[in-house]
Amino acid sequence: MTLVLPVAPPVVRAVAAPAHRRRLPALAMLVLGALLAVVPVAGGLFARAASGQQLVDGFAPHLTADALDRYDADLGTLRRGAAAIDEVYRQRQVPAGRFRGLDEYRATAPAIDARGTDLLGRVRAAAPDYRQVAGVGGFDRIPFLVVVAGLSMAYAGTTLLRGPRQRATGARLLALAASAALIGYPFVSGLPDGSRAGERLQHALAPVMTEATVRQQQEDFVVLVHAVGELDTAFRAVSRTGRAERDLAALVRAWPAVSSDLAGLVGAINDSLADYRALRDLDDLTRPVGISGLVAMPWLLVGAGVLGSLTVAASGSRRRKESP
Amino acid sequence: MTKRFLIAVLTATALLGPTACSTDQGSARDDRGTELVGLLELAPGSVEAGKVTGTWFRMVQVGGSATKGPYMRNADSPADGGEATLLAPGTSGGIRLGGYQSQPRPAFAADGDSLAAAITRPTKFFGVRFSIATNPVDPQTRTKVAPPTAYVKDGRLTADLSSWGVTWNNQVFNQGAPKPVSSTGAKAPGQEKAEKVWDWVAGTYLESAPAPTITGKGATGTYDEKTGRFVLEWTSLIVGGPFNRFIGRWHLEGTFEKAAKAPHA
Predict the structure, then answer these.
(1) What are the domain boundaries of chain B?
(2) Chain A: nearest CA to B48, how far in angstroms?
């Protein structure tokens, strides 16, 4: 007996509607990524950020509370020494011209003291902002973050436009991670507060960070070394007593430390001039649109991250509507 | 086999003979003349009949001239109203050629006095003792520098003293001639390594010369082969630091003592 079954109808599987590549968000992702990868290189951000970091590192030993107190004490020693020299000159009627170095110091001591006090005042006033800037983690690595995020987005955008469909999810995840890093870094590192402090610091130190300041401090140093040299040698022959004697002895005794402090600070200013100018240039990058580059930096990162996230969200593939 | 060996030796001698390598106990010859290897023993500075002789140093103020000054007046020096500072040989007796005489660690006493004592005896300069050292990496410019070398040709002495570094009051100043190119500019993380890799690639595959690490002229002077007496002079601009743009003027005198090339210290 043969069982005859009717011919089964062909199984018809529903054909999935073809996934549609969303070209515009992918293209936007690619363009954003390319911009992020290129702008730091073209804008010299690597060198400027490195200069900013070196500036911060260079001043580190000079902006501690101990160092600032020491500089105050140095100025006090010089002030008392200058007064003591005046007193001995008056008491012993020392004629002008006998001690050239001391004569010059007597003539310029008030101005040297005023300049030193002003310099130290500015440095001290800038110290809190400096500490906030120094607290920003990895300032010199920001350009790397931007470039790597940019390359990731560019790769993801290219993959979404032209790559195999099975890589689309991975590409979107990569772009999302890059966007998240751009958004998250400023908040994790304290960049918004640090960069605002950096902008204030940059302005506060502007009168100090000049060749003219270095030159003036060098001239003051020359006057001081000649004067203290005479104090420690030829001027010993002039008798003095009491407070003047104590103050002059204190100045001569403290001179190695005072001159070391002064030389260290002037050296730090001189050697940081190029770094300071680079930081100022960084701040001026966005000045044409009326914003400080330093203040804008964290928000530019966040903005780029948000844009990246939007392109990721918009790039999700959608199914075509089935035709009736 | 023997014939081939002889030809090879003769060819090598013909090729190398004029340019390099005749070594005789502390000297070698090349285009610059005969290299002096040994010790430039320094004669101590002194003032004779009002004239400063021996080994001395002057510091020219910013904007001044190396020959006319104005010089810093070192109240601790009796020479020329303090405008010259007399130097005395250190524990090694002078400059070791072909080797470094590095600064000790620590380089300074608590009061800022220099502790480097091999080349010259630490000498008071404005209340604080300064001295000299030669280091493989110049402490101020952080550039690798050659050890001191000197060549003599027809009685003229030329020297590379790019490693000549002064230590004073917790400060370091390169006072060499020629001058090392500074390596202290700001660098992005990884840039230094990348530059080294690039230098290697460029040198190996592109046959390009590495960027120069020194600039300017070396020290010059005279040398008497019979007596070994030498005079060596140079000026060196201070670049960077608190004494940026001051100039050091150096005058060294003494006698050359041949010796085997010393290991680097």
Answers:
(1) 39-258
(2) 22
